């Protein structure tokens, strides 16, 4: 990779080097590509870098926004027992708000804050707003954010102690909504990985402790949850200012056999790609830290993801009982979790009967897991010295733009490159794990 230009924090002018004579290393939290421009969200800084082809060994920024926490926020952060290195403004949300605005949030010394900036000049536009429920407090915490229809959908924690995990909708014209607070059926210590919009829903990918396996030790599983974009919240009696459409299902990335071998820990997910005419996301999974080291890439068809949410619900009748499917005749009508729409009997979720809202509140979990395409991982790596953490896909690779190439980033900085054959997955019988991919190369960064 020596022939690729790298970014180390220098500007185009000789004077525009990193502060402090270049002593502070970059701490990159977010990267956003907009056409031929790259925005890099760092600690206290956002850089704007042009992606025009260069023969130089270094990419340099053309504009830089410095957004530091003020002394007051830093002293309160230090007073609460945090280290000086944590009491900085780590950029955790960076989104295109419209054709000229960038929406940016930072941890701001454990007092998160958001603001709009001009994409062109990186000058602030308007006032700062609170980053609570939009951005985590701690730079180490995972979060996801997505703009659609002028509304901001976020998944993060809302408090300093990181106890209250939330999927939250704000900004735009619709009411602010959140997930139910401190209810382990909705969330149990989630780690949010990615969000995508598809049709009338926003889908969130995350991992959490599985309450349905409460008879075992703590088991972490991977999930996909969804909410309706047009959800207006519940009635004044049930789910007021909360989602009426939140449902979640397990993601199954496993090697088939008499006893499946599961890769339970989701690490990264792509946006929706069109592969072989299907809307597909590719996701990286690993084994838990105390297991044998292993990673896999599974593909999920969004139509199959959506179908699971039309299936059976799962419930736990009492705190001691095991979880079982809800019989179809016990599910109220209209179906809990559906999106209200004009022309329906209920044209807004706030008019749903209490019976529907109560069912959604107490039954967020679907019975079936989402199967992976081909019912087996497309790529498997076991007994390596690393685990896979990141994924990037080029589905128009090769001289004719008709190949799909996957780049996988490992915990050690190694990058693996694979060629994918998505058309090998139409057969219903499980394919041998890894048969849909060809390993091309491995390089160190």
From TrEMBL:
Query: Where is the protein localized?
Result: Cell membrane
Entries under Pfam families matching the protein:
Sema (PF01403)
SUPFAM superfamilies, alphabetized: Sema domain
Which GO molecular function annotation, any one, does this entry have? chemorepellent activity
Q: Which residues form the Sema domain?
A: 1-445
Top-rank taxon, per record: Eukaryota
- What's any GO biological process attached to this entry? neural crest cell migration
State the SMART domains in the record: Sema
Q: Which GO terms describe its cellular component?
A: plasma membrane
Give the region (Disordered) as residue ranges.
426-445
InterPro entries, alphabetically? Semap_dom (IPR001627), Semap_dom_sf (IPR036352), Semaphorin (IPR027231), WD40/YVTN_repeat-like_dom_sf (IPR015943)
Please give, as recorded in its UniProt entry, the membrane topology of this protein: Single-pass type I membrane protein
Q: Which UniProt keywords apply?
A: Cell membrane, Developmental protein, Differentiation, Disulfide bond, Glycoprotein, Membrane, Neurogenesis, Signal, Transmembrane, Transmembrane helix
Question: What's this protein's family per the entry?
Answer: Belongs to the semaphorin family.
The protein in question is named SEM6B protein
Species per Swiss-Prot/TrEMBL record: Chauna torquata (Southern screamer)
Encoding gene per record: Sema6b_0
């Amino acid at each position: 990779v020596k022939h690729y230009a790298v970014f180390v924090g220098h500007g185009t002018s000789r004077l525009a080097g990193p502060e402090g004579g270049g002593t502070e290393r970059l701490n990159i939290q977010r990267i956003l590509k907009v056409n031929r421009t790259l925005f890099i969200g760092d600690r206290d800084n956002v850089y704007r870098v042009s992606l025009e082809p260069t023969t130089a060994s270094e990419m340099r920024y053309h504009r830089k926004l410095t957004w530091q926490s003020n002394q007051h926020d830093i002293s309160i952060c230090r007073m609460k027992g945090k280290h000086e290195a944590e009491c900085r403004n780590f950029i955790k949300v960076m989104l295109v708000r419209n054709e000229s605005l960038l929406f940016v949030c930072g941890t701001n010394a454990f007092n998160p804050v958001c603001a709009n900036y001009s994409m062109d000049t990186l000058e602030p536009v308007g006032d700062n707003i609170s980053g609570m429920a939009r951005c985590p407090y701690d730079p180490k915490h995972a979060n996801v954010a997505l703009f659609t229809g002028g509304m901001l959908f976020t998944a993060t924690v809302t408090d300093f102690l990181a106890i209250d995990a939330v999927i939250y909708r704000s900004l735009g014209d619709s009411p602010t909504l959140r997930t139910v607070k401190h209810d382990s059926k909705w969330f149990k210590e989630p780690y949010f990985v990615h969000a995508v919009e598809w049709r009338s829903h926003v889908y969130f990918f995350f991992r959490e402790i599985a309450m349905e396996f409460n008879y075992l030790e703590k088991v972490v599983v991977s999930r996909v949850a969804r909410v309706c974009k047009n959800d207006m919240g519940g009635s004044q009696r049930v789910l007021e200012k909360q989602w009426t459409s939140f449902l979640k299902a397990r993601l199954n990335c496993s090697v088939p056999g008499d006893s499946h071998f599961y890769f339970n820990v989701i690490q990264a997910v792509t946006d929706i790609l069109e592969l072989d005419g299907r809307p597909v996301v590719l996701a990286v999974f690993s084994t838990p830290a105390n297991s044998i080291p292993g990673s896999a890439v599974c593909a999920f068809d969004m139509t199959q993801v959506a179908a699971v949410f039309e299936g059976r619900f799962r419930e736990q009748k009492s705190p001691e009982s095991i979880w079982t499917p809800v019989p179809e005749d016990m599910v109220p009508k209209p179906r809990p979790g559906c999106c209200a729409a004009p022309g329906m009997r209920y044209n807004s979720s706030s008019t749903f009967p209490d019976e529907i809202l109560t069912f959604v509140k107490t039954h967020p979990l679907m019975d079936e897991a989402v199967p992976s395409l081909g019912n087996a991982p497309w790529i498997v790596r076991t007994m390596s010295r690393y685990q896979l953490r990141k994924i990037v896909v080029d589905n128009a690779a090769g001289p004719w733009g008709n190949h799909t190439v996957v780049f996988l980033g490992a915990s050690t900085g190694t990058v693996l490159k694979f060629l994918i054959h998505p058309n090998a997955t139409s057969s219903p019988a499980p394919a041998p794990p890894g048969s849909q991919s060809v390993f091309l190369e491995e390089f160190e960064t």
